[in-house]
Amino acid sequence: VTDFIAGSAAGFAGKLLDYPLDTVKVLLQTQSVGANVDSGTVLNKAASSTTLIIAETSPLGQPRVVYRGGLHCLQHTINTQGFFSLYKGLSSPLLGSMAENAVLFLVYNSFKRLLAGEFSPFNNAEQYDNIINNKEDLTLLQLSIAGAGAGAVVPFVLTPVELIKCRLQVQNAGSNSGFRTYKGPLDVIAQTIKTEGIANGLYRGNSATLMREIPGNAAWYGVYEGVCKLMIPEGGSKADLGTSAHLIGGALAGVAYWTAFYP
């Protein structure tokens, strides 16, 4: 229960912080998707927004890039649509992130307990208690294996959440009709199951997500735990680390995850 609650809280806080940047990422990835229209303009849907961005076309009739980069995209979106436009469509990813991180925490710590020997008839009770209470740790290889195990489970929660998020963010790209394919997250689920089914619809791309999450979480937890180990004071334990050490470890782990497996 503690792992589940801690994971949910972490997912909630993390998504509130990173969602504006995720919106910028999707806007950059989907810009210039629009089709040419008359008067030398192109309509390009601003991913998670309901407002159309008008961009000039080049002499060859190709849509010009609307944004020069991440900072320009962020500034343009805030100036034209307001700061809270960066949070449009947040509800589904927020709930999804809470569920994802709850599963990650729960499964990761379950694998740690398994590797610590909780279910072994030869279990050393004192060593097990020390590991679980962060006074003694598993090897980095064991921790990476636990991370990979968590990564093998979480896609079954994450894949539908990401599909819903992406379809809401990019719906109607390039359309000037104002017609919206989906009314919201529940409508995405209903329409997807009705027209595509569950396996080929909601879980489309699950294999690719598995290929990302298994090594990705092995890298994330391996780097996180490794950085934390380096910051443990002499003669101390992981339990002695402050919040800043965990933040640094998490930040570097995130860099490792996305740098290695972003494609």
From TrEMBL:
Solcar repeat windows: 1-114, 138-230
Source taxon at top rank: Eukaryota
Q: What keywords tag this UniProt record?
A: Membrane, Mitochondrion, Repeat, Transmembrane, Transmembrane helix, Transport
Name a GO CC annotation attached to this entry. Answer: mitochondrial membrane
Report how it sits in the membrane.
Answer: Multi-pass membrane protein
Q: Does the keyword Membrane apply?
A: yes
Cellular localization per UniProt: Mitochondrion membrane
Q: Which SUPFAM superfamilies match?
A: Mitochondrial carrier
| Single GO molecular function | L-ornithine transmembrane transporter activity
Q: Which PROSITE patterns match?
A: SOLCAR
Entry keyword DNA damage:
no
Quote the InterPro entries the UniProt record gives: MCP_dom_sf, MCP_transmembrane, Mitochondrial_Carrier
Q: Which GO terms describe its biological process?
A: mitochondrial L-ornithine transmembrane transport
What is stated as this protein's family in its record? Belongs to the mitochondrial carrier (TC 2.A.29) family.
Kindly provide the name given to this protein in its UniProt entry.
Mitochondrial carrier protein
